[in-house]
Amino acid sequence: MLVVKLGGSNGLDFAAPCRDIAALVREGKEVVVVHGGSREVDRISAALGRPPRYVTTPSGFRSRYTDRETLEIFAMVVAGRINKLLVEHLQALGVNALGLSGLDGRLLVGKCKGVIIALENGRKRVLRGDYGGTVEGVNASLLRWLLEGGYTPVIAPVAMSTAGEALNVDGDRAAAAVAAALGAEALVLLTDVPGLLRDPADPSTLIPRIPAAEARGCLERYAKGRMKKKLHAAISALEGGVARVIIADGRVEAPVSRALEGRGTVIGGRARELPGKGEG
Amino acid sequence: MLVVKLGGSNGLDFAAPCRDIAALVREGKEVVVVHGGSREVDRISAALGRPPRYVTTPSGFRSRYTDRETLEIFAMVVAGRINKLLVEHLQALGVNALGLSGLDGRLLVGKCKGVIIALENGRKRVLRGDYGGTVEGVNASLLRWLLEGGYTPVIAPVAMSTAGEALNVDGDRAAAAVAAALGAEALVLLTDVPGLLRDPADPSTLIPRIPAAEARGCLERYAKGRMKKKLHAAISALEGGVARVIIADGRVEAPVSRALEGRGTVIGGRARELPGKGEG
Predict the structure, then answer these.
(1) Whether complex ipTM tops 0.95
(2) Please, are residues B191 and B226 in contact by the beta-carbon 8 Å criterion?
């Protein structure tokens, strides 16, 4: 079983990943798709007169401040637009895709941040009423049940808080939680760069392989911005029992298959240490 | 088993119907919810600079002209906004709601109209590229499977065409198709009037009961506008084997339970002729 995260920052060009996923499903592979959609959320928010508000947290993350109205736009776009366009696209390729948000059947249960600390001009500022959250529980039996029924789940990054409210969650972290809950053999995080780079400006500095024990060190040394979130997600997936995580380029033909062959940055990967186990 | 259609034309005040559905689910009733959302689609379309375009067909129906861009907005709003707000609301009431559009798992398969005939100043005009459609097939096994698993399906009126494209479908007709496919004992169509009225301006002219054989006659004689679509939906549900259809007021407390007790306009209703069968 395989969990694939489709990045949202490079827009909606999901054609090559979808073709590849369709081929894998035809071969009998069980695939769960998780997607993002930030760029599209920003575009539609702005068109609706609610431009997105991003803040930088003291730990250096760029984070969306999500009040209730922003949350409703976020949910509408990721669960209603991106999710359904992906489902339509996969269905046209013969995949019996079934789209869900984390609200549906309590698929993703999370903790609401409530407040977000923003660093503004070197000073910390507390913003209340934030509906961002982190995934803490996954309804894995619903996903297994759908996979057994021949459906390919496609998951939008919205979770249900323990208080019963919708939350905006990070797609990479949600994919990691899903992969861990399913005990997936691999988590593929597709993005618009070739993998983790020593120098973000130079693709030739790709780090091809990171043993699990060295992942935290790499996080401190090389990861910036979005890549930091991806490495955090990778580490939590490995800690959750996923055999390997591959951060790979989603802009090429057959990006998932290439990632499974080891292109990109492979993190963990007990498969190499125990030949014959967990491959592909 | 029971199918409830929540009307979209009276906005998003789903509080009373949701409370009632939660009570019915707690009593062990299997409920499938279908919703609309036209008014909200119109509001957001207009905010996005794409005001809706309605036409009147030669047979007197008011119909939305849905080009591809309108379809994408329609799907986003009904499947991402209304569906997820409803799921969140039901979840907060303890119902394990699970939202789907007709695209998901090919839940609703339909035929694309392709063209729509508009009557403009007494002349017929052909509009091409319409992504409106009618539901012709329902994946009933997916719904039964979810109900058996303890989930309450909540369905957005988007279908999948035989060519693999998304379609905008009428919520009442979709609910009728779902009720027929499941062999539901009752279909409750909630709206913002007390039922079918002899005189739409006078609530005291409510028609409380229409035997199945007289439904077509009533359609010609009394139904106008949206009520015409509801009666059409009711007739197709009865023809599909649903025992009775109730068109009822959704603006009151416990609107579904009241409808099942016979308030509103009850169409068909073999339950009355064969005591003890199909009740409630």
Answers:
(1) no
(2) yes
